Amino acid sequence: MWILTAIFQAIGQALTWVLPVSESGHSAIFHNFSGRYTDACSQLTGVIHIGIAIGIIAAFYKLFFYLAKNFFGAWNDLFHKRLDIKNPPSQRKFMLMTILSFVPMLLYLIPAGKYGNIYQFFNRTSYNEFILGEGICIILTGVLLIITQSMIDKRNKTFPAAVQALIIGLTAFIAVPTAGCSLVAGVFCVAVLLGMSDKYAVRYSMVLSVMVLLVTGVIEICVGVTAISVVSAILGIVISAAVTFFAVKILLYVIKNKALKFFAWYDVALGIICLVIGIFQFVIE
User: Fold this and answer.
1) Rounded to whole angstroms, how far apart are CA atoms 85 and 31?
2) Helices (H), 102-229
3) What DSSP character marks residue 119?
4) Which SS3 state, helix, strand or coil, does residue 44 take?
5) Helix (H, G, I), strand (E, B), or coil: what is residue 42?
C-alpha cells in the first residue's frame, strides 16, 4: 500500500508543483473530500518535495552551476573588497536578485498567537471544512495566467532589479503557505508583468522553488506525523525527480508556444467548482 501511495503521490505532487495548477490547492481539495481537515503531513510529502527540487536542478543544471559559481565568487570578491553591487554581471545580478527575494520570507517568523507564527497561520487556515478560499485562489491563479499570456512578448515597463526582487519575494511569501496559490505560476506571472522575459521569469521561479522545496522538505520530514519506509522514500525521490524533469520540459514547451491559456482555463474551471462547493458547504454548515 505504501509503495502505491509513494508512486501516485510523487507523480501528483511533481506535476501540480511544476505546472501552474497549484499543488497546495489540489492537496487541500483532497484533504477536504477525505475528511482530513488538518495541515499535518507524512514524511513522504517532505521526501517528495526534495525529489522535486532534485528534478528541477537536473533540468536546469547549468543554471544552478553558474548560480553556485557566482555565489561563492561574490563571497570571494567581498573578502577582497571588489564586490560590485551597483553594476554586477548578468549572472551575478540574477543570483543577487534571487537572494533578495527571500528577504520577505523572514516575515514568516513573526509570532501569530495560537498559530505559532505567520507561516503556520496562513497554512492552517487553508485546511478547514470549506474549500471556498482555495477556489478563489485557484481562480485568481487562472486569471493571472490569462493576463500574463497577453503580456508576453510585449514591452512591459521595466522596474529596478531590487524592486522586482522584493515584489517577487512578496508574491512568494503569499503563495507558499496559501492553499490554491501556485509558487511557480505566481512568481512567473509577476516577473513577466514587472518586465522580465518569459525565459528569465521561468528560471527565476524555478530557483525560488528549489530553495523553498528543500527547506519545507526537511521540515516536513522532521515533523511528519506518519513515518515511511526506506523503499517508499527512495521511490518517492526517484519518481518525483523524474516526473519533475519531464514536467519542466512540458512547462517550457507550453510557455514557448504561448499555450498557458489551457492551464488558465483549467484553473478557472476547477476554482469555480470549488467556489460553488465551498458556498454550499458554508450554507449547510
Assistant:
1) 46
2) 118-124, 132-151, 161-175, 183-193, 198-223
3) H
4) helix
5) strand
Q: Say if CB 127 and CB 29 are below 8 A apart.
A: no
Q: Is the dihedral of CA 275, 145, 254, 6 positive or negative?
A: negative
Residue closest to 180 by CA, chosen among 52, 16, 56, 49: 16
Residue 234 to residues 14, 51, 176, 228, Cα–Cα distance (Å): 15, 9, 25, 10
Q: In whole angstroms, how large is the CA radius of gyration of the chain?
A: 19
Residue 226 DSSP SS3: strand
pLDDT above 70: percentage of residues in the chain: 92
**Residue 81: its pLDDT value, please?**
74
Cα gap 139→192, rounded to integer Å:
19
Q: What is the largest CA-CA distance in the chain?
A: 67
pTM assigned to the model: 0.91
Q: Of 105, 91, 78, nearest to 169 (Cα)?
A: 105
pLDDT, averaged across the chain: 87
CB neighbour class for 98 (10 Å; exposed up to 12, middle 13-18, buried from 19): buried
- Mean pLDDT to the nearest integer, 77-101: 83
Lowest-confidence segment of 103-117, 131-145, 165-179 by average pLDDT: 103-117
Contact 69, 35 (CB under 8 A): no
180: left (phi over 0), alpha (psi -120 to 50) or beta: left
Do residues 138 and 267 touch, judged by C-beta distance below 8 A? yes
94 in Cβ contact with 73 (< 8 Å) = no
Checking if the pLDDT of 50 tops 80, the result is yes
16-50 burial by CB neighbour count: b if 16+ within 10 A, else e?
Answer: bbbbbbbbbbbbbbebbeeeeeebebbbbbbbbbb
